[in-house]
Amino acid sequence: MTTYARIDELSAHAGTTVTVRGWVTHLRSSGKVAFIVMRDGTGILQTVLVKNAVPPEAWALFGELTQEACIAVTGEVRADARAPGGYELGIAGLELIGASPLDYPIQPKEHGIDFLLDNRHFWLRTPRQVAIFRIRNEIEQAIHDFFYDRGFLRVDTPILTAAIGERSGLFSTEYFEEGNAFLAQTGQLYGEAAAAAFGKIYTFGPTFRAEKSKTRRHLTEFWMIEPEVAFNESEDNMKLQEDMLTFIVGRVLERRQAELKECERDVSKLESVKTPFPRIDYSDAVATLQKKGSKVQWGDDLGAEDEALLVEDYDRPVFVMNYPKEAKAFYMKENPADPRTVLCDDCLAPEGYGEIIGGSQREDDLEKILHRLREEKLPEEAYDWYLALRKYGTFPHSGYGLGLERTVAWICGSQHIRECIAFPRMMHRLRP
Ligand code: 4AD
Ligand code: MG
């Protein structure tokens, strides 16, 4: 009976014979002894083949192996402090599952980012990418745990919509006799309806923006987490954001040290992510930025450079609060203390990573939100059901959207969001 084991389970098999299946990453031979380093997605394993100790077919097969060939090795698991993962396998049997010709696209040398993206289906196999995706998965799980433990209901909102959400571009597709359907830019408007039904909710799904931006932080398809909470006001909303971010970062630090190391992340920068996060009023932010030499004017939204300039004095995420109305979406609640502004916040990640969350208290006054819709020349009919939430039992409520890939990029210390999603969609990239 063959015992199959994954590399991360080998400690449980020390001293016994198992079969491990995976892909060749490195090959080395001295003529009498050969080493095959292999990976199976759960870890890296060094295996040792001694010419005199294996059948001649196995030794001959070694000579034909190439990078990325899929193999099965059978042998004894031996503890070895010097080996990656702490265990080595002494090969008694070697079998080829799938050969890989010598022209495998990704070679052990520097490749340009466009080449790597063209070969994303293979690039994903490399150690840094594996580490990023384990961290992404940890972040996703931490988010679900955070909200579940706090009694939030997860609501899955539609991707095909008739109404629209944010200001940036829409993707549309024909929808039977109903005209055009639009790919959701946000789940928020549905989240607001759900908050009145279930109290505290969050959505976690793909969102789409036909933005013609080619920056390091824009994708046309990205994943967003959007909580919406009945009776939360703007300050409660920020409190939830900082608690959530601290929880996520803490979880990654606790469970993903090896992956952070693979990403060469300076973890001391993540260790300082503690509540409370500084809260800066938009007007003060503009004054500070102008002093630092920025050309930003009161009324402008903050660009990437301004965001980086503003956070350089802080060691943790920063909230910029209460932006001018014209810089933000129609649904944000007018600030009673200064009606030129709205009750909102952008959460800016430290180290220049920029906005990772946009949040706000929602306008709950029917007349005021109608006025804003008309000012923005948005189609009132498309919003009829959304407006009706203000007619029947309107309620104070707040929520926010966390961009998953930007959060992964920040936590991994990645310079580009496109390596933080498995198959990125950007203006000039629709494949693989
Ligand atoms: O600030 P945004 O546009 O806010 C909303 O969509 C609100 N409906 C959220 C809410 O209140 N429920 O987007 C929220 C976050 C941004 O802070 C950013 O992290 C991410 O989504 N994001 C993008 N990420 C990658 N590529 C893009 N093109 C993004 N646009 C926004
Ligand atoms: Mg925003």
Salient structural properties:
432 residues, alpha+beta, OB fold (Dihydrolipoamide Acetyltransferase, E2P), BirA Bifunctional Protein, domain 2, five-stranded mixed beta barrel, 30% helix, elongated, binds 4-amino-1,4-dioxobutan-2-aminium adenosine-5'-monophosphate, binds magnesium ion
Mean model confidence by pLDDT: 95
Proportion of strand residues: 15-25%
Q: Which ligands, by name, code or SMILES, are bound? A: 4-amino-1,4-dioxobutan-2-aminium adenosine-5'-monophosphate, magnesium ion
Q: Outline, from the CA principal axes?
A: elongated
Question: What is the C-alpha radius of gyration, as a whole number of Å?
Answer: 26 Å
The main sheet orders its strands as: 6-10-11-16-15-14-13-12
- Second-tier CATH architecture of the largest domain: 2-Layer Sandwich
Could you give the distance between the termini? 40 Å
The CATH superfamily of the largest domain is known as: Bira Bifunctional Protein, Domain 2
Count up the domains.
2
How many β-strands, per DSSP?
Answer: 16
